[in-house]
Amino acid sequence: MRLLDKTSPAFLYQQVIDFVEHQQKIGALSPGDKLPSLRKLSRQFEISVPTVKQAYIELERQGRVCARPQSGYYLTALQARTLKPRPAKWSHCAPTTVQCRSMIEQVHEAVHLPDTVALGISNPIQVNPPDKTLARLMRSVLSRVAEKAVSYGPPIGDAKLRMQLAFRYQDQGVAINPNDILITNGAQEALSIALQCVAKQGDIIAIESPCFFGMIELIETLGMKALEVYTCTEDGVCLDELASAIKQHPIKACLFSTAINNPLGSMKTDEQRQAIVSLLEHNNIPLIEDDVYSELYFSEQKPKPAQLYSEKGLVMTCSSFSKTAAPGYRTGWLLPGKYEEQAKRIKRAQSCSTAMLQQWTLNEYIQSGDYDRHLCVLRKKLIYNCERMRALIAEHFPSEVCISKPQGGSVLWVRCQSHVNTGAFFQAALEKGVSFAPGVIFSPSGKYANYMRISYGVQWNEQVEDAVKTLGELVFDYSFKQLDQQQAVLKSLDKKSDQQ
Ligand SMILES: Cc1ncc(COP(=O)(O)O)c(C=O)c1O
Fold it and tell me: Above 90 in pLDDT, residue 356?
Protein backbone atom coordinates (compact mmCIF):
# COMPACT_ATOMS: atom_id res chain seq x y z
CA MET A 1 0.00 0.00 0.00
CA ARG A 2 1.45 3.36 -1.08
CA LEU A 3 1.60 5.98 1.64
CA LEU A 4 1.61 9.72 1.17
CA ASP A 5 4.90 11.53 1.66
CA LYS A 6 4.07 14.18 4.21
CA THR A 7 7.57 15.70 3.96
CA SER A 8 7.26 16.20 0.18
CA PRO A 9 6.67 19.76 -1.10
CA ALA A 10 3.79 18.38 -3.21
CA PHE A 11 0.36 19.19 -1.76
CA LEU A 12 -1.30 16.26 -0.01
CA TYR A 13 -4.41 16.56 -2.16
CA GLN A 14 -2.20 16.35 -5.29
CA GLN A 15 -0.67 13.16 -3.90
CA VAL A 16 -4.19 11.74 -3.54
CA ILE A 17 -4.81 12.60 -7.20
CA ASP A 18 -1.52 10.84 -8.11
CA PHE A 19 -2.66 7.83 -6.12
CA VAL A 20 -5.95 7.61 -8.06
CA GLU A 21 -4.05 7.97 -11.36
CA HIS A 22 -1.66 5.22 -10.34
CA GLN A 23 -4.53 2.90 -9.40
CA GLN A 24 -6.00 3.51 -12.84
CA LYS A 25 -2.67 2.87 -14.57
CA ILE A 26 -2.14 -0.50 -12.88
CA GLY A 27 -5.76 -1.50 -13.63
CA ALA A 28 -6.94 -1.49 -10.02
CA LEU A 29 -9.57 1.11 -10.96
CA SER A 30 -11.48 1.15 -14.27
CA PRO A 31 -14.09 3.54 -15.67
CA GLY A 32 -17.33 3.07 -13.78
CA ASP A 33 -15.58 1.95 -10.58
CA LYS A 34 -16.37 3.69 -7.32
CA LEU A 35 -13.44 5.48 -5.69
CA PRO A 36 -12.72 4.66 -2.03
CA SER A 37 -14.96 6.72 0.25
CA LEU A 38 -13.61 10.00 1.65
CA ARG A 39 -13.53 8.55 5.14
CA LYS A 40 -11.78 5.35 4.09
CA LEU A 41 -9.02 7.13 2.21
CA SER A 42 -8.54 9.69 4.95
CA ARG A 43 -8.10 6.86 7.47
CA GLN A 44 -5.81 4.94 5.15
CA PHE A 45 -3.50 7.91 4.48
CA GLU A 46 -3.93 9.48 7.90
CA ILE A 47 -5.01 12.78 6.38
CA SER A 48 -8.17 14.84 6.86
CA VAL A 49 -11.45 14.15 5.05
CA PRO A 50 -11.48 17.68 3.51
CA THR A 51 -8.06 16.98 1.92
CA VAL A 52 -9.36 13.86 0.20
CA LYS A 53 -12.48 15.76 -0.77
CA GLN A 54 -10.35 18.54 -2.30
CA ALA A 55 -8.61 15.92 -4.46
CA TYR A 56 -11.91 14.39 -5.58
CA ILE A 57 -13.38 17.80 -6.36
CA GLU A 58 -10.34 18.63 -8.48
CA LEU A 59 -10.68 15.29 -10.31
CA GLU A 60 -14.35 16.07 -10.85
CA ARG A 61 -13.49 19.51 -12.20
CA GLN A 62 -11.15 17.86 -14.69
CA GLY A 63 -13.98 15.52 -15.76
CA ARG A 64 -12.09 12.45 -14.59
CA VAL A 65 -14.53 11.43 -11.88
CA CYS A 66 -18.19 12.17 -11.35
CA ALA A 67 -20.01 12.54 -8.07
CA ARG A 68 -23.21 10.54 -7.62
CA PRO A 69 -25.26 12.01 -4.78
CA GLN A 70 -25.60 9.73 -1.76
CA SER A 71 -23.42 7.18 -3.45
CA GLY A 72 -19.87 8.50 -3.90
CA TYR A 73 -17.34 9.34 -6.60
CA TYR A 74 -16.94 7.26 -9.75
CA LEU A 75 -14.21 7.10 -12.33
CA THR A 76 -15.37 8.29 -15.75
CA ALA A 77 -14.28 7.20 -19.21
CA LEU A 78 -11.66 9.89 -19.66
CA GLN A 79 -10.98 9.45 -23.34
CA ALA A 80 -14.66 9.34 -24.35
CA ARG A 81 -15.62 12.43 -26.35
CA THR A 82 -18.99 13.55 -25.06
CA LEU A 83 -21.77 14.38 -27.48
CA LYS A 84 -22.55 18.07 -27.03
CA PRO A 85 -25.87 19.87 -27.61
CA ARG A 86 -26.65 21.02 -31.14
CA PRO A 87 -24.29 18.61 -32.86
CA ALA A 88 -25.44 19.38 -36.38
CA LYS A 89 -27.34 22.10 -38.20
CA TRP A 90 -30.98 21.64 -37.29
CA SER A 91 -33.27 22.05 -40.27
CA HIS A 92 -36.89 22.60 -39.37
CA CYS A 93 -39.04 19.65 -40.26
CA ALA A 94 -42.36 19.30 -41.97
CA PRO A 95 -44.84 16.73 -40.65
CA THR A 96 -43.91 13.43 -42.22
CA THR A 97 -44.77 9.76 -42.51
CA VAL A 98 -42.28 7.06 -41.57
CA GLN A 99 -39.60 6.15 -44.09
CA CYS A 100 -37.56 3.55 -42.26
CA ARG A 101 -40.04 0.78 -41.53
CA SER A 102 -37.99 -2.12 -42.92
CA MET A 103 -34.98 -1.17 -40.81
CA ILE A 104 -37.18 -1.04 -37.68
CA GLU A 105 -38.41 -4.55 -38.51
CA GLN A 106 -34.86 -5.82 -38.85
CA VAL A 107 -33.85 -4.33 -35.49
CA HIS A 108 -36.83 -6.04 -33.80
CA GLU A 109 -36.05 -9.37 -35.43
CA ALA A 110 -32.39 -9.18 -34.41
CA VAL A 111 -33.40 -9.20 -30.74
CA HIS A 112 -34.34 -12.87 -30.97
CA LEU A 113 -31.48 -14.13 -33.13
CA PRO A 114 -29.55 -16.91 -31.42
CA ASP A 115 -25.85 -16.36 -30.61
CA THR A 116 -26.14 -12.62 -31.11
CA VAL A 117 -25.05 -10.04 -28.55
CA ALA A 118 -28.12 -7.82 -28.49
CA LEU A 119 -26.75 -4.29 -28.15
CA GLY A 120 -29.65 -3.00 -30.26
CA ILE A 121 -32.37 -3.50 -27.70
CA SER A 122 -32.95 -1.51 -24.55
CA ASN A 123 -33.55 -4.14 -21.90
CA PRO A 124 -32.06 -2.74 -18.67
CA ILE A 125 -33.25 -5.53 -16.40
CA GLN A 126 -30.64 -7.82 -17.97
CA VAL A 127 -28.17 -6.03 -15.69
CA ASN A 128 -29.95 -7.34 -12.62
CA PRO A 129 -32.76 -9.75 -13.59
CA PRO A 130 -35.37 -10.15 -10.84
CA ASP A 131 -36.65 -13.40 -12.38
CA LYS A 132 -36.12 -15.64 -9.34
CA THR A 133 -37.92 -13.34 -6.90
CA LEU A 134 -40.78 -12.83 -9.34
CA ALA A 135 -41.05 -16.59 -10.00
CA ARG A 136 -41.27 -17.26 -6.24
CA LEU A 137 -43.97 -14.60 -5.82
CA MET A 138 -45.92 -15.89 -8.82
CA ARG A 139 -45.89 -19.45 -7.45
CA SER A 140 -47.21 -18.16 -4.15
CA VAL A 141 -49.94 -16.14 -5.94
CA LEU A 142 -50.91 -19.15 -8.05
CA SER A 143 -51.30 -21.32 -4.99
CA ARG A 144 -53.89 -18.85 -3.63
CA VAL A 145 -56.01 -17.66 -6.55
CA ALA A 146 -57.39 -21.03 -7.74
CA GLU A 147 -59.61 -20.75 -10.88
CA LYS A 148 -59.34 -16.93 -10.89
CA ALA A 149 -55.89 -17.48 -12.44
CA VAL A 150 -57.51 -18.32 -15.78
CA SER A 151 -60.45 -15.90 -15.72
CA TYR A 152 -60.90 -12.48 -17.32
CA GLY A 153 -59.80 -9.59 -15.17
CA PRO A 154 -61.45 -6.15 -14.89
CA PRO A 155 -60.70 -3.94 -17.95
CA ILE A 156 -59.05 -1.25 -15.81
CA GLY A 157 -56.82 -3.80 -14.04
CA ASP A 158 -56.19 -5.12 -10.54
CA ALA A 159 -57.38 -2.77 -7.78
CA LYS A 160 -54.43 -3.49 -5.48
CA LEU A 161 -51.83 -2.83 -8.16
CA ARG A 162 -53.58 0.43 -9.07
CA MET A 163 -53.49 1.35 -5.39
CA GLN A 164 -49.72 0.70 -5.23
CA LEU A 165 -49.17 2.84 -8.31
CA ALA A 166 -51.35 5.61 -6.89
CA PHE A 167 -49.26 5.61 -3.67
CA ARG A 168 -46.08 5.97 -5.72
CA TYR A 169 -47.47 8.96 -7.62
CA GLN A 170 -48.84 10.48 -4.42
CA ASP A 171 -45.33 10.25 -2.94
CA GLN A 172 -44.24 12.55 -5.75
CA GLY A 173 -47.04 15.00 -5.07
CA VAL A 174 -49.48 13.88 -7.79
CA ALA A 175 -53.03 13.83 -6.43
CA ILE A 176 -54.19 10.66 -8.13
CA ASN A 177 -56.88 8.20 -7.19
CA PRO A 178 -56.41 4.44 -7.94
CA ASN A 179 -59.59 4.59 -10.04
CA ASP A 180 -57.91 7.16 -12.32
CA ILE A 181 -55.33 4.57 -13.38
CA LEU A 182 -55.81 2.15 -16.26
CA ILE A 183 -53.63 -0.97 -16.43
CA THR A 184 -52.46 -1.72 -19.98
CA ASN A 185 -50.43 -4.23 -21.97
CA GLY A 186 -47.12 -2.45 -21.54
CA ALA A 187 -46.45 1.23 -22.11
CA GLN A 188 -46.90 0.69 -25.84
CA GLU A 189 -50.62 0.02 -25.41
CA ALA A 190 -50.92 3.00 -23.05
CA LEU A 191 -49.33 5.22 -25.72
CA SER A 192 -51.66 3.84 -28.37
CA ILE A 193 -54.78 4.42 -26.26
CA ALA A 194 -53.64 7.92 -25.32
CA LEU A 195 -53.04 8.85 -28.97
CA GLN A 196 -56.43 7.52 -30.01
CA CYS A 197 -58.10 9.56 -27.26
CA VAL A 198 -56.88 12.85 -28.67
CA ALA A 199 -56.07 12.45 -32.37
CA LYS A 200 -57.27 10.76 -35.53
CA GLN A 201 -55.89 9.81 -38.96
CA GLY A 202 -53.98 12.62 -40.65
CA ASP A 203 -53.44 14.61 -37.44
CA ILE A 204 -50.00 15.98 -36.59
CA ILE A 205 -48.23 14.64 -33.51
CA ALA A 206 -45.11 16.43 -32.29
CA ILE A 207 -42.29 14.10 -31.21
CA GLU A 208 -38.75 14.53 -29.96
CA SER A 209 -35.93 14.18 -32.44
CA PRO A 210 -34.32 11.70 -32.03
CA CYS A 211 -37.26 9.64 -30.80
CA PHE A 212 -37.81 6.01 -29.72
CA PHE A 213 -38.70 4.13 -32.92
CA GLY A 214 -41.68 2.37 -31.28
CA MET A 215 -43.44 5.74 -31.02
CA ILE A 216 -42.67 6.54 -34.64
CA GLU A 217 -44.13 3.21 -35.78
CA LEU A 218 -47.19 3.69 -33.61
CA ILE A 219 -47.91 7.12 -35.11
CA GLU A 220 -47.56 5.67 -38.57
CA THR A 221 -49.78 2.68 -37.81
CA LEU A 222 -52.53 5.01 -36.61
CA GLY A 223 -52.28 6.98 -39.87
CA MET A 224 -51.03 10.12 -38.12
CA LYS A 225 -48.10 12.35 -39.08
CA ALA A 226 -45.01 12.95 -36.98
CA LEU A 227 -43.46 16.38 -36.57
CA GLU A 228 -39.91 16.28 -35.22
CA VAL A 229 -38.92 18.89 -32.64
CA TYR A 230 -35.25 19.54 -31.87
CA THR A 231 -34.24 17.72 -28.70
CA CYS A 232 -31.09 18.59 -26.79
CA THR A 233 -28.56 15.98 -25.69
CA GLU A 234 -28.70 17.39 -22.17
CA ASP A 235 -32.17 18.57 -21.30
CA GLY A 236 -34.55 17.08 -23.81
CA VAL A 237 -37.07 18.70 -26.10
CA CYS A 238 -36.29 22.37 -26.76
CA LEU A 239 -38.98 24.76 -25.49
CA ASP A 240 -38.25 27.49 -28.09
CA GLU A 241 -38.40 25.01 -30.97
CA LEU A 242 -41.65 23.64 -29.58
CA ALA A 243 -43.16 27.13 -29.29
CA SER A 244 -42.24 27.93 -32.89
CA ALA A 245 -43.56 24.55 -34.12
CA ILE A 246 -46.89 25.30 -32.39
CA LYS A 247 -47.11 28.61 -34.29
CA GLN A 248 -46.39 26.94 -37.63
CA HIS A 249 -48.40 23.72 -37.47
CA PRO A 250 -51.80 22.61 -36.17
CA ILE A 251 -50.27 20.17 -33.65
CA LYS A 252 -52.93 17.84 -32.28
CA ALA A 253 -50.85 16.35 -29.45
CA CYS A 254 -47.25 16.02 -28.23
CA LEU A 255 -45.70 12.66 -27.47
CA PHE A 256 -42.58 13.22 -25.36
CA SER A 257 -40.35 11.20 -23.06
CA THR A 258 -40.69 13.68 -20.25
CA ALA A 259 -38.28 11.97 -17.84
CA ILE A 260 -35.37 10.36 -19.70
CA ASN A 261 -35.21 10.36 -23.48
CA ASN A 262 -34.45 7.18 -25.42
CA PRO A 263 -31.95 7.29 -27.22
CA LEU A 264 -30.31 10.49 -25.83
CA GLY A 265 -30.48 9.77 -22.10
CA SER A 266 -31.22 13.49 -21.62
CA MET A 267 -33.27 14.62 -18.67
CA LYS A 268 -35.21 17.83 -18.06
CA THR A 269 -35.24 19.57 -14.72
CA ASP A 270 -38.61 19.63 -12.96
CA GLU A 271 -38.86 23.36 -13.81
CA GLN A 272 -38.29 22.70 -17.52
CA ARG A 273 -40.95 19.99 -17.45
CA GLN A 274 -43.37 22.38 -15.80
CA ALA A 275 -42.63 25.01 -18.48
CA ILE A 276 -43.49 22.51 -21.25
CA VAL A 277 -46.78 21.61 -19.58
CA SER A 278 -47.80 25.24 -19.15
CA LEU A 279 -46.88 26.08 -22.78
CA LEU A 280 -48.96 23.16 -24.05
CA GLU A 281 -51.92 23.66 -21.74
CA HIS A 282 -51.93 27.37 -22.61
CA ASN A 283 -52.34 26.29 -26.26
CA ASN A 284 -54.83 23.52 -25.37
CA ILE A 285 -52.53 20.83 -26.73
CA PRO A 286 -52.56 17.46 -24.93
CA LEU A 287 -49.22 16.06 -23.77
CA ILE A 288 -48.75 12.30 -23.84
CA GLU A 289 -45.80 11.66 -21.55
CA ASP A 290 -43.78 8.50 -21.93
CA ASP A 291 -42.36 7.86 -18.49
CA VAL A 292 -40.90 4.35 -18.82
CA TYR A 293 -37.37 5.34 -17.81
CA SER A 294 -38.19 7.61 -14.87
CA GLU A 295 -37.07 5.03 -12.28
CA LEU A 296 -33.68 4.65 -13.97
CA TYR A 297 -32.35 8.11 -13.08
CA PHE A 298 -28.66 8.57 -12.20
CA SER A 299 -29.17 11.77 -10.23
CA GLU A 300 -30.17 12.21 -6.61
CA GLN A 301 -33.92 12.30 -7.08
CA LYS A 302 -36.49 10.68 -9.25
CA PRO A 303 -37.74 13.14 -11.88
CA LYS A 304 -41.28 14.35 -11.23
CA PRO A 305 -43.88 13.40 -13.85
CA ALA A 306 -45.28 16.14 -16.10
CA GLN A 307 -48.67 14.99 -14.76
CA LEU A 308 -47.86 16.83 -11.53
CA TYR A 309 -47.95 20.20 -13.30
CA SER A 310 -51.16 19.67 -15.26
CA GLU A 311 -53.92 22.12 -14.40
CA LYS A 312 -56.34 21.36 -17.23
CA GLY A 313 -56.10 17.55 -17.26
CA LEU A 314 -54.43 17.58 -20.69
CA VAL A 315 -51.45 15.45 -19.59
CA MET A 316 -51.69 11.68 -20.09
CA THR A 317 -48.96 9.62 -18.43
CA CYS A 318 -47.84 6.28 -19.92
CA SER A 319 -45.46 3.91 -18.19
CA SER A 320 -44.75 0.25 -17.43
CA PHE A 321 -42.67 -2.30 -15.55
CA SER A 322 -40.83 -3.22 -18.77
CA LYS A 323 -37.64 -1.28 -18.06
CA THR A 324 -37.56 -1.96 -14.34
CA ALA A 325 -38.81 -5.49 -13.68
CA ALA A 326 -40.29 -7.68 -16.42
CA PRO A 327 -40.83 -6.63 -20.06
CA GLY A 328 -42.28 -10.07 -20.72
CA TYR A 329 -45.12 -9.46 -18.24
CA ARG A 330 -46.46 -6.76 -20.57
CA THR A 331 -47.81 -4.75 -17.66
CA GLY A 332 -48.04 -0.99 -18.01
CA TRP A 333 -50.45 1.80 -17.11
CA LEU A 334 -52.03 5.00 -18.23
CA LEU A 335 -53.08 8.05 -16.21
CA PRO A 336 -55.58 9.43 -18.73
CA GLY A 337 -56.18 12.87 -17.21
CA LYS A 338 -59.47 14.27 -18.46
CA TYR A 339 -59.73 11.59 -21.17
CA GLU A 340 -60.68 8.85 -18.72
CA GLU A 341 -63.93 7.76 -20.34
CA GLN A 342 -62.48 7.58 -23.86
CA ALA A 343 -59.41 5.72 -22.57
CA LYS A 344 -61.48 3.07 -20.79
CA ARG A 345 -63.66 2.57 -23.85
CA ILE A 346 -60.66 2.21 -26.18
CA LYS A 347 -58.98 -0.22 -23.77
CA ARG A 348 -62.11 -2.43 -23.68
CA ALA A 349 -62.45 -2.35 -27.45
CA GLN A 350 -58.77 -2.92 -28.09
CA SER A 351 -57.73 -5.68 -25.68
CA CYS A 352 -60.53 -6.19 -23.15
CA SER A 353 -58.18 -6.49 -20.16
CA THR A 354 -54.59 -7.19 -19.15
CA ALA A 355 -53.37 -10.57 -17.82
CA MET A 356 -54.01 -10.73 -14.06
CA LEU A 357 -51.36 -13.18 -12.85
CA GLN A 358 -48.58 -10.75 -13.70
CA GLN A 359 -50.44 -7.86 -12.06
CA TRP A 360 -50.94 -9.79 -8.80
CA THR A 361 -47.29 -10.80 -8.83
CA LEU A 362 -46.09 -7.24 -9.42
CA ASN A 363 -48.37 -5.98 -6.65
CA GLU A 364 -46.74 -8.42 -4.20
CA TYR A 365 -43.32 -7.43 -5.51
CA ILE A 366 -43.94 -3.75 -4.70
CA GLN A 367 -45.67 -4.47 -1.40
CA SER A 368 -42.79 -6.63 -0.13
CA GLY A 369 -40.31 -3.78 -0.64
CA ASP A 370 -38.28 -6.02 -2.97
CA TYR A 371 -39.11 -3.85 -5.99
CA ASP A 372 -37.55 -0.72 -4.49
CA ARG A 373 -34.50 -2.64 -3.25
CA HIS A 374 -34.10 -4.10 -6.74
CA LEU A 375 -34.36 -0.61 -8.31
CA CYS A 376 -31.50 0.66 -6.12
CA VAL A 377 -29.23 -2.15 -7.29
CA LEU A 378 -30.37 -1.80 -10.90
CA ARG A 379 -29.54 1.93 -10.97
CA LYS A 380 -26.09 1.37 -9.46
CA LYS A 381 -25.25 -1.36 -11.95
CA LEU A 382 -26.48 0.74 -14.87
CA ILE A 383 -24.31 3.69 -13.79
CA TYR A 384 -21.33 1.35 -13.67
CA ASN A 385 -22.05 -0.26 -17.04
CA CYS A 386 -22.62 3.12 -18.63
CA GLU A 387 -19.09 4.35 -17.90
CA ARG A 388 -17.57 1.00 -18.85
CA MET A 389 -19.38 1.05 -22.18
CA ARG A 390 -18.37 4.66 -22.86
CA ALA A 391 -14.75 3.74 -22.17
CA LEU A 392 -14.91 0.67 -24.39
CA ILE A 393 -16.44 2.57 -27.31
CA ALA A 394 -13.87 5.37 -26.91
CA GLU A 395 -11.12 2.76 -27.04
CA HIS A 396 -12.31 0.82 -30.08
CA PHE A 397 -14.07 3.38 -32.29
CA PRO A 398 -12.43 6.12 -34.41
CA SER A 399 -11.35 9.09 -32.32
CA GLU A 400 -13.84 11.43 -34.05
CA VAL A 401 -16.75 9.48 -32.58
CA CYS A 402 -18.76 11.27 -29.86
CA ILE A 403 -20.75 9.48 -27.17
CA SER A 404 -23.71 10.70 -25.13
CA LYS A 405 -23.37 11.03 -21.37
CA PRO A 406 -26.80 9.85 -20.24
CA GLN A 407 -28.50 11.00 -17.07
CA GLY A 408 -30.38 7.75 -16.84
CA GLY A 409 -31.74 4.83 -18.84
CA SER A 410 -29.72 2.08 -20.49
CA VAL A 411 -28.52 3.26 -23.90
CA LEU A 412 -25.75 5.35 -25.46
CA TRP A 413 -26.25 7.53 -28.50
CA VAL A 414 -23.11 7.47 -30.59
CA ARG A 415 -22.30 9.90 -33.38
CA CYS A 416 -19.86 8.63 -36.03
CA GLN A 417 -18.12 10.73 -38.69
CA SER A 418 -20.61 12.49 -40.98
CA HIS A 419 -19.85 10.25 -43.99
CA VAL A 420 -20.60 7.03 -42.07
CA ASN A 421 -23.96 5.37 -42.73
CA THR A 422 -24.47 3.00 -39.80
CA GLY A 423 -27.45 1.25 -41.45
CA ALA A 424 -25.13 0.15 -44.26
CA PHE A 425 -23.26 -2.27 -42.00
CA PHE A 426 -26.19 -3.45 -39.87
CA GLN A 427 -26.37 -6.80 -41.72
CA ALA A 428 -22.60 -7.24 -41.58
CA ALA A 429 -22.79 -6.72 -37.79
CA LEU A 430 -25.51 -9.38 -37.49
CA GLU A 431 -23.37 -11.80 -39.48
CA LYS A 432 -20.61 -11.20 -36.94
CA GLY A 433 -23.03 -11.87 -34.07
CA VAL A 434 -23.78 -8.31 -32.87
CA SER A 435 -26.91 -6.19 -33.14
CA PHE A 436 -27.20 -2.46 -32.62
CA ALA A 437 -29.84 0.12 -33.50
CA PRO A 438 -28.92 2.26 -36.56
CA GLY A 439 -29.57 5.98 -36.04
CA VAL A 440 -31.90 6.34 -39.01
CA ILE A 441 -34.77 4.53 -37.24
CA PHE A 442 -34.96 7.26 -34.58
CA SER A 443 -36.30 9.85 -37.03
CA PRO A 444 -39.31 9.54 -39.34
CA SER A 445 -37.58 11.75 -41.89
CA GLY A 446 -34.43 9.62 -41.89
CA LYS A 447 -32.08 11.91 -39.95
CA TYR A 448 -29.21 10.48 -37.89
CA ALA A 449 -27.82 8.10 -40.56
CA ASN A 450 -24.36 8.50 -38.99
CA TYR A 451 -25.55 7.66 -35.47
CA MET A 452 -26.07 4.40 -33.66
CA ARG A 453 -27.69 3.42 -30.37
CA ILE A 454 -25.78 0.95 -28.23
CA SER A 455 -27.25 -0.57 -25.09
CA TYR A 456 -25.29 -0.94 -21.86
CA GLY A 457 -28.21 -2.74 -20.22
CA VAL A 458 -26.36 -6.04 -20.56
CA GLN A 459 -24.80 -8.72 -18.38
CA TRP A 460 -21.19 -7.65 -18.73
CA ASN A 461 -18.89 -10.36 -20.08
CA GLU A 462 -16.15 -10.96 -22.67
CA GLN A 463 -18.66 -11.43 -25.49
CA VAL A 464 -20.01 -7.92 -24.85
CA GLU A 465 -16.49 -6.50 -25.02
CA ASP A 466 -15.78 -8.41 -28.26
CA ALA A 467 -19.09 -7.23 -29.71
CA VAL A 468 -18.16 -3.58 -29.11
CA LYS A 469 -14.74 -4.17 -30.70
CA THR A 470 -16.50 -5.70 -33.73
CA LEU A 471 -18.74 -2.64 -34.07
CA GLY A 472 -15.68 -0.38 -33.85
CA GLU A 473 -13.98 -2.36 -36.64
CA LEU A 474 -17.07 -2.02 -38.82
CA VAL A 475 -17.11 1.75 -38.33
CA PHE A 476 -13.38 1.93 -39.21
CA ASP A 477 -13.84 -0.31 -42.30
CA TYR A 478 -16.80 1.69 -43.52
CA SER A 479 -15.11 5.04 -43.11
CA PHE A 480 -11.91 3.86 -44.86
CA LYS A 481 -13.90 2.43 -47.77
CA GLN A 482 -15.84 5.65 -48.14
CA LEU A 483 -12.69 7.73 -48.08
CA ASP A 484 -11.07 5.42 -50.71
CA GLN A 485 -14.12 5.86 -52.91
CA GLN A 486 -14.07 9.63 -52.49
CA GLN A 487 -10.38 9.72 -53.41
CA ALA A 488 -11.01 7.54 -56.50
CA VAL A 489 -13.76 9.94 -57.62
CA LEU A 490 -11.49 12.96 -57.08
CA LYS A 491 -8.68 11.28 -59.04
CA SER A 492 -10.96 10.51 -61.98
CA LEU A 493 -12.22 14.12 -61.96
CA ASP A 494 -8.59 15.36 -61.97
CA LYS A 495 -7.82 13.09 -64.93
CA LYS A 496 -10.80 14.36 -66.87
CA SER A 497 -9.87 17.99 -66.30
CA ASP A 498 -6.24 17.24 -67.39
CA GLN A 499 -7.53 15.73 -70.64
CA GLN A 500 -9.72 18.73 -71.44
C1 LIG B 1 -39.14 5.15 -24.67
C2 LIG B 1 -39.96 3.89 -24.68
N3 LIG B 1 -41.29 3.98 -24.57
C4 LIG B 1 -42.07 2.89 -24.59
C5 LIG B 1 -41.53 1.63 -24.71
C6 LIG B 1 -42.44 0.46 -24.73
O7 LIG B 1 -42.53 -0.08 -23.46
P8 LIG B 1 -43.35 -1.43 -23.15
O9 LIG B 1 -42.41 -2.56 -23.38
O10 LIG B 1 -43.78 -1.31 -21.74
O11 LIG B 1 -44.51 -1.48 -24.08
C12 LIG B 1 -40.14 1.49 -24.83
C13 LIG B 1 -39.54 0.17 -25.01
O14 LIG B 1 -38.45 0.01 -25.49
C15 LIG B 1 -39.34 2.65 -24.81
O16 LIG B 1 -38.01 2.59 -24.92
Answer: yes
Measured from the CB, is residue 214 less than 6 Å from ligand 1? Answer: yes
Q: 187 CB under 6 A from ligand 1?
A: yes
The answer to whether the CB of 120 is under 6 A from ligand 1 is no
- Taking the centre of ligand 1 as the mean of its atom positions, its distance from the CA of residue 450, in whole angstroms, is 23
| The pLDDT of residue 149 | 87
Evaluate: CB of 124 within 6 angstroms of ligand 1.
no
152-191 pLDDT, tens digit per residue, is: 999 999 999 999 999 999 999 999 999 999 999 999 999 9
- What is the whole-number distance in angstroms between the Cα of residue 430 and the centre of ligand 1? 23
**For ligand 1, is residue 186 a contact (CB within 6 Å)?**
yes
Q: State mean pLDDT over 66-90.
A: 75
What pLDDT digit, counting tens, does each position of 251-261 carry?
A: 999 999 999 99
Residue 492 has pLDDT above 80, yes or no: no
How sure is the predictor about 497, in pLDDT bands with cuts at 50, 70 and 90? confident
Given a cut of 90, whether residue 116 has pLDDT beyond it is: yes
Please state the atom number of ligand 1 nearest to the C-alpha of residue 331: 10
Q: Residue 262: CB within 6 Å of ligand 1?
A: yes
Residue 310: φ, ψ to 5°: -75, 130
- How far does residue 307's CA lie from ligand 1's centre (Å)? 18
Distance CA 105, CA 103 (A): 5
Q: Which domains does the chain have, with CATH numbers?
A: 12-75 (1.10.10.10), 129-371 (3.40.640.10)
